[in-house]
Please model this.
Amino acid sequence: MPSEWIARHDQTVTLKGEWTLANYRYIKAALNHSETRTELGKPTGATVSLDAITRLDTAGAILIVELIGVEKAQAVADWAAKLPKEQQALLVRIAEAMEAPLDVDPPSYSRISQALASVGQHMAGLWSQQRQLLAFIGLVVATLFHLALRPRHWRLTATVAHIQQSGLNAVPIVALLTFMVGAVVAFLGATVLQDFGATIYTIDLVAFSFLREFGVLLAAILLAGRTASAFTAQIGAMKSNEEIDALQAQGLDPIELLVLPRVMAMLISLPMLAFVGMLSGLAGGAMVTSLSLDISLTQFMATLQKDVSVTHFLVGLSKAPVFAFVIAVIGCLEGFKVSGSAQSVGEHTTSSVVQSIFMVILIDAVAALFFMEMGW
Amino acid sequence: MINSDKPTEQNDLPVIKVRGLVNHFGAHVVHENLDLTLERGEILGVVGGSGTGKSVLLRSIVGLKRPNDGTVEVLGTTLNELNEAQRSQIERRFGVLFQRGALFSSLNLQENIALPLIEHARLPREDAEHLARVKLALVGLPPQAALQFPESLSGGMVKRAALARALALDPDILFLDEPTAGLDPIGAAAFDQLLVTLRDALGFSVFLVTHDLDTLYAACDRVAVLSQKRVLVVDTIDKVADTDDEWIQDYFHGPRGRAAQRAHTGSSNNANVQE
Model:
């Protein structure tokens, strides 16, 4: 079996050439082809000569140790005296490292039990997630009441900073988005209502939908994507940097320092953004009606005042604090769930956005039913 | 050393040649006209007070920070003048151990170490993971650790695993940023010994940033002292320790320095007796 790396003459197997990582694959293939391995295993087996090896690195040394066995490799000085001292030392080190069995098999289960376990895990996870959320809400509310009468503990600077980040900085995107949706709703309304000769009701359509639903809903969904993820990532990074532990070890309350400023900031920002959303949605509608339906701005305003009562505005705005609280709490809670790894930060950020958007829409649907039944 | 015979390079050339390096962050000047040379096959310890720019120097050499002025020549080429592909060729001959390990947190240890083997050495996954397990054993980690994720490891284990990753490709130059910080003294001594054994066997050069006086005595061929924005002195440790400079005197002849020196001379005397 002549090869670039192994040669055999009578009772001597000569290893030669460059036993390095770059050649690892080829040497391994050559070894698998040859009968060297079995020959060496026999008590009367061949002797091995390492003298012709020109280069040796750890990968090559690992192959040699596997070939000749750990004990022989550890006694390399006795039978391969010509090998440079450094390489002997390397072989001995590698042999020491390979003395204990290296392979640990992960426990394996059948596919069916794996699938069942995964379903069970997900269900249990869902359940514990809801319980955690409720417990966390309770904790936040309790802390909130506890601190309400202690103004010294109000974190005004942090709260204002968060209002700027999650509220003020979100104004342009909220305004732009609701403006465009307002225009789209007006277009749709105009197209459908034209058949009935009732294009003037486009104004009512835009006003009702934006005051009651879209203004607050769109703002909430945007903040769920924009701010809940930011909260999760911020708190998650602090968690993996042990900053949360450091706070607790100093007797400081992370809920008070980290969660409450964020919750308060959202409670203040979202109603304002919802208001901005309503106004700019109406503006979008007004633009379309005035440009394509020949309804003047004055007429738009007059119809608005005549047909749309302030109740709709209040109904819409009343949902904003609820959404704000849910988004902020979910964002913070997911941040606290982060454990160490970068992957975990990603998973929990995704989860916080999905959960908060889901909760916002769910609550909105329930609220719509409630308000309808109440006749508000 | 047979391993250092690379036909493509002249052996007498230093592996790293830093000339006139300037680094500053805004108005804060870290390095000014810094010169440093790493010879082939040596272990160079780099010491200096906190904030003297040891880590910045390391980052400038491996190309993570572009120096504001001066040249950094690595293995005979200037990294900043190369294109991406050529750079990658050079960079895969580096092994870097970062201060906090910087293991990939979404991979388990064996995958962490197998990654460069799969990507650069183009080994099949099975072989790469086998080599990875041997390397983990080589740095003294138990076999069960191979399947664990970095977040569940102690600081010392992270350091060892990071060393195993730095050694994965049998690099020509090993950069170590405070490798023994956070290890217990026994683990640190084993680390020093492992480093010297591997260096002797594989013939790589080591750029070692450290505060650990024991490591300086036990492992380093030469020591460079960073101070006053440049390399104050580079020499063997005994000569550096005798340099007339306040910081150096405090560092090497303070209580810890004396203890490390005593331990070292003690152990080398023992070694002489045994021989």
Remarks:
- The beta strands of chain B are 16-25, 28-38, 43-48, 69-74, 77-78, 94-97, 173-177, 205-209, 222-227, 230-235.
- The CA atoms of residues 163 and 216 of chain B lie 18 Å apart.
- Chain B has a mean pLDDT of 81.
- Chain B has ten helices and ten strands.
